[in-house]
């Protein structure tokens, strides 16, 4: 599981049948300690209603196909949570101040 920031979206009118109606977002992986970019952006299927600017939890590989909305769907990355805050060794490294 990684954390990432949602930085954009992907629109695809022609796609696999099981992807119809699914929201595809561009995510930028983040370092949990610094909340700085850590790697290249990738496309992830949204399962929780997240949006641009939010910090999210992302699973990949076979785990991405374990949610109710992705079971049997050809995906390799799924957003499974919107992060409220991250605390590591007693230090708050991220806090969602949006509400």
UniProtKB/TrEMBL annotation:
Single GO cellular component term: carboxysome
Subcellular location: Carboxysome
SUPFAM superfamilies the UniProt entry points to: EutN/CcmL-like
Main location: other
Keywords: Bacterial microcompartment, Carboxysome
Domain of life of the native organism: Bacteria
Pfam families, per the entry: EutN_CcmL
Tagged with keyword Cytoplasm: no
InterPro entries reported in the protein's UniProt record: EutN_CcmL, EutN_CcmL_sf
Protein's recorded name: Ethanolamine utilization protein EutN
Lineage start: Bacteria, Bacillati, Bacillota, Bacilli, Bacillales
């Amino acid at each position: 599981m990684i954390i990432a920031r949602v930085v954009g979206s992907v629109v695809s009118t022609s796609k696999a049948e099981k992807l119809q109606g699914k929201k595809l977002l561009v995510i930028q992986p983040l370092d949990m300690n610094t909340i700085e970019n850590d790697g290249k952006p990738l496309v992830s299927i949204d399962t929780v209603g997240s949006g641009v600017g939010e910090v999210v939890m992302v699973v990949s590989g076979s785990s991405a196909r374990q949610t109710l909305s992705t079971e049997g769907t050809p995906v390799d990355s799924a957003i499974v949570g919107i992060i409220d805050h991250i605390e590591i060794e007693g230090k708050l490294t991220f806090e969602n101040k949006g509400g």
